[in-house]
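Most newcomers find our protein records easier to grasp once they have seen one. To make this concrete, we reproduce a full record directly below:

…
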Amino acid sequence: MSERLGTARPALRALLAVLAGLALATGGVAAAAFAAGSTVLPVSSATTQAWTGGQTVTIQYPQDYFCDTSVAASTPSGCEVGTAANRGPVANPDRSVLYVLVPLFANPSPAPMCAVASCPNHPLDIDLSRIAGALGASPGAVASVPLPAHSHILDGPAGGWWQVKVVAVTTQTAWAQLAAGKSESTMNALLAAPGSGVIGPVPTNLYLFFNVVGR
């Protein structure tokens, strides 16, 4: 995985520069976490879009996220990328998977479903120190950055707790292909194709709770 991420290092460095600028502009993630009207506070009626089975669906977040604190993280949220959770929020060995698609280029079209550090009942911050080498950064420099803008692909129409895995997208062409396919199968085909511009999936210790409520 680190080798594949390394091939996208210039784009990943660009992403880090954007995130660093955002952190400085806001006084850091911790300051943003206490901003009035934060959309990451638990809001049972909050919704976003997601793609699954070739369709765009609406998903509703009845409760807040969960990050396994037995996996060390330097963020206030306790969330990180690079190591899978040791335990989930409930005892269920067969959990659904949410793939978080992160564009590593400017002005993706269509726009990501969630802007930087804004999606409902998501963490505001994430620890990327475990993949710092692939990013060409020191672990300390990426130990707490704002949650990047992203879109969602579901592995099916289930509900409840979803295990989160990150997929990086390095080109507009690949992003447009994912948007056209709207499916896990399209994503997997691109992941299997060398040089496709789609890299991952990368494990995390993060789970989100939501249900598919509309198509």
Summary: The beta strands are 47-52, 55-60, 66-67, 96-103, 125-126, 145-146, 151-154, 160-169, 198-214.
